[in-house]
C-alpha cells in the first residue's frame, strides 16, 4: 500500500491536484486527502485553494457541487458508480413539474441533490445550516423541502413549520429505529447518543443531540464527555478517533455503512489522476442555473 500511496502523491504533485475526502469514505482515503469534511465544506475549500484539478472522494452529487463552485477546474470522481440513492429519489423532471404546478411555492433543496435538480429550486441548505435557512423563509409562504423527508420532518418539528416533504430518504440513516437507540443505551449506560438529522424524527427525539457530521465533530471537541454513541455512517469514527485520542466512540449500529461511500479505493484515485478521468461534466445551462441556489444559501449562512 505504501508504494500505491507514493504513486498517488507523485501524480497529485504532477497534476497540481487537491484531494478531497468526505467524512464517510474509507480511512485510507481520508489519510491521503488534503481536506476531509462534509460535502459543501470540501467544495468551498477546493474553490478557495484555487485547485486546477479536484479529486473528490465522495459520491456524485458532491463532485457536481465542486464543479458548480469551481467551473474552471477539472473535477474527477474516482469511481463513477459512487452515487447517492437519496439524491436519485428526486428526479429533475419531477421537480420541474412540481415547480410548474406550484409557482408560488419556495422549493428548498438539501445539498444532497443532483445539479439537474438544483437548477429548478430556489435555495439550497446543508444539514448544518438548514435550520437557519428555513427560519429565514417567509412564514406565510408554502415551502417544499426535498429530497429528505426525515431532515425536513425534523426541521418542521423543531421550527414549527409545515413544509411539504418530498418522499426521499437516506437508506443508511433511515433504517435506524427507536429500538436501536434503546439497545445502544442499554449496552452503554450513561453515554450520550449523537445522531444525524437524516434519521427518522422518532429516532431524533430519543437521541441526546442531532447534528451534521461537522456538528458531531465540533460537539465532541467541545465536550468534556469521555465516550459517545455515534449515529451516522461509521466512516466518521476514523476521524473522531484521530482527533480525540483517549476517548471512546461506539457506532449506534455496526451496519451503518453507506455502500456508495465505500466504493472509492486508493487504486481508483491513482487511476483517475493518471488518466484524468472520469471527469464531471455538466451542461452550461445546468451550471448557470444550479449554482444560484447555492449562492443564495451561502449569502445567508
Summarize the model shown.
The chain has 301 residues and is α/β, with parallel strands linked by helices.
Question: What number of structural domains do the residues give?
Answer: 3
Shape: globular
**How does CATH name the architecture of the largest domain?**
3-Layer(aba) Sandwich
**Fraction of helical residues:** 40-55%
DSSP strand content: 15-25%
Q: Count up the helices.
A: 16
Cα distance, first to last residue? 41 Å
Q: Write down the Rg.
A: 19 Å
Output mean pLDDT.
97
Topology record:
Blueprint: H1 2-15, E1 17-22, H2 27-32, E2 35-37, H3 39-49, E3 53-57, H4 60-69, E4 74-76, H5 85-88, H6 92-101, E5 106-110, H7 115-118, E6 123-125, H8 130-135, E7 143-146, H9 149-159, E8 164-165, H10 171-174, H11 178-187, E9 192-195, H12 201-206, E10 209-210, H13 213-222, E11 227-231, H14 236-243, E12 248-251, H15 266-275, H16 284-300
Parallel strand pairs: 1-2, 1-3, 3-4, 5-6, 5-7, 7-8, 9-10, 9-11, 11-12
Helix pairs in contact: 1-15, 3-4, 4-16, 13-14
Amino acid at each position: 500500500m505504501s508504494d500505491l500511496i507514493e504513486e498517488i502523491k507523485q501524480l497529485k504533485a504532477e497534476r497540481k491536484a487537491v484531494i478531497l475526502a468526505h467524512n464517510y469514505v474509507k480511512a485510507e482515503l481520508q489519510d491521503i486527502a488534503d481536506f476531509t469534511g462534509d460535502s459543501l465544506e470540501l467544495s468551498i475549500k477546493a474553490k478557495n485553494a484555487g485547485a486546477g484539478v479536484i479529486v473528490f472522494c465522495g459520491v456524485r452529487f458532491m463532485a457536481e457541487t465542486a464543479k458548480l463552485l469551481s467551473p474552471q477546474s477539472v473535477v474527477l470522481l474516482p469511481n463513477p458508480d459512487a452515487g447517492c440513492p437519496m439524491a436519485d429519489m428526486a428526479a429533475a423532471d419531477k421537480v420541474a413539474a412540481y415547480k410548474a404546478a406550484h409557482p408560488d411555492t419556495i422549493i428548498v433543496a438539501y445539498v444532497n441533490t443532483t445539479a439537474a435538480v438544483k437548477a429548478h429550486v430556489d435555495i439550497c441548505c446543508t444539514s448544518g445550516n438548514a435550520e437557519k435557512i428555513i427560519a429565514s423563509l417567509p412564514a406565510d409562504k408554502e415551502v417544499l423541502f426535498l429530497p429528505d423527508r426525515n431532515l425536513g420532518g425534523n426541521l418542521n418539528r423543531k421550527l414549527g413549520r409545515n413544509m411539504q416533504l418530498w418522499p426521499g430518504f437516506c437508506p443508511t440513516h433511515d433504517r435506524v429505529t427507536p429500538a436501536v437507540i434503546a439497545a445502544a443505551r442499554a449496552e452503554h449506560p450513561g453515554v450520550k447518543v449523537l445522531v444525524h438529522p437524516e434519521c427518522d424524527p422518532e429516532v431524533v427525539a430519543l437521541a441526546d443531540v442531532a447534528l451534521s457530521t461537522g456538528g458531531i465533530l465540533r460537539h465532541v471537541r467541545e465536550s468534556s464527555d469521555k465516550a459517545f454513541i455515534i449515529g451516522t455512517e461509521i466512516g466518521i469514527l476514523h476521524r473522531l478517533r484521530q482527533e480525540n485520542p483517549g476517548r471512546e466512540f461506539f457506532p449506534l449500529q455496526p451496519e451503518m455503512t453507506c455502500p456508495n461511500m465505500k466504493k472509492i479505493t486508493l487504486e481508483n484515485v491513482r487511476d483517475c489522476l493518471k488518466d484524468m478521468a472520469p471527469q464531471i461534466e455538466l451542461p452550461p445551462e445546468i451550471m448557470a442555473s444550479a449554482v444560484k441556489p447555492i449562492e443564495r444559501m451561502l449569502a445567508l449562512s
